[in-house]
What we know:
Belongs to the NSE1 family. The chain is α+β, with helices and mostly antiparallel strands. The chain has 3 domains: 9-63, Aspartate Aminotransferase, domain 1 (Alpha-Beta Complex); 90-180, Winged helix-like DNA-binding domain superfamily/Winged helix DNA-binding domain (Arc Repressor Mutant, subunit A, Orthogonal Bundle); 185-235, Herpes Virus-1, CATH 3.30.40. The protein has helices at 9-21, 26-39, 49-60, 89-94, 99-114, 122-128, 139-151, 166-179, 209-215; strands at 23-25, 65-71, 78-84, 120-121, 155-158, 161-164, 197-199, 206-208. β5 (155-158) and β6 (161-164) form a beta hairpin. The longest helix has 16 residues, at 99-114.
Amino acid sequence: TAMAAPMTDAHRRFLQVLMSHGIMEGSEARKLHRRCCEIHKVYYAHDKLDDFVSTINSHLQPLFMQIRKGLSEGDGRAHYALVNLAETEITKMASDYTENELELFRKTMDLIISSEDGFASSTDILNLADQLKTKKMKKKEAEQVLKVFVEDKWLSERNGEYTLHTRCIIEMEQYILSNYQDMARKCYICHSLAIQSQVCDSCGIRMHLPCVRKCFRAQTDPRCPHCNDCWSCDIP
């Protein structure tokens, strides 16, 4: 195999900043790419971010780490996240959280993945807190733990409804697809895991909201791309 392109100080700086953030929106990553190249006087091409990242990835390979690109389910924007491939993500979380916090996270994930639209209400989640097998949690305590999951970018919250953060989906896609085989669905359009999504009433296919928007952009009478029945959900 060809030797990987060498890592420069620009690559190292990019990696350090990404490590401190855990995840970055595409436009931020593009700005960072440019800044790193300028600071270290390394050749910069605005359309070469993915090549720049793959150079870093070839050097991360022996460390079982990888920068992965994924899309936000809310608005379809690209994000870059640093992923640890050596451990399954739940084991990685195990070093940061107690057993009952992890159990609460798993149960929250169950609710989100089995829901129709990819959200779980705080009420439903907090009701699980006193049913934990490891060690029951008081509501106040559980609220605090949920806050931490949001700060650590495992969950995101909107008006008391929780869903999986983009970082969590990028990191855990494989884990979720293999551990939730009967429930986890892929988006009919982009074929990646679909949590926040709409479902066809007739045939049951799922589509991400940005994919729904793209798919029906020019249609006055939106029909399911799979079964051709009327699309019953409101187009976002």
